[in-house]
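Just curious: can you write whichever protein you like plus the matching structure tokens?

***
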Amino acid sequence: MALLVRQYLISVMSFLVFLERIVTAAEPNMDLVFINCAPEKYGDMDNYALAVELSTNDIILQTGLQGGNWYNKGTVYSAVCYGHGKCAMDITTQDCSDCLKGVRVFMIQECKKSIGVHCKVGSCEFRYEAYPFNDG
């Protein structure tokens, strides 16, 4: 009986530690560090516009799930968009997604239809280009 009580208490303590990690997780820092917009633009319905959409959606969905650092490539026919998302290690998977969503909205507003954009805020970084790159 004492062994069962001890195992139960260990389980409860482990659960409380888990809850504390969730509650004390940092909110994403959305303070702008920098934004760079390529001067070249793409059209509304050209294949590159669709490749950008494909790449940026995937970055938002996958970056947090892939450990906070995700490279991808969106291809629509011959148009290719290379993307990269990165999140700080002190935010949750959901906060990573939310941070990248917010950055994408800001990138669209500030860099309307640029073929390449690189934006960093305190908790995440988002980049897409028409050429392969490594933010190493």
About this structure: Residues 27-129 form a domain with the Killer Toxin P4; Chain A fold (CATH 3.30.430.20).
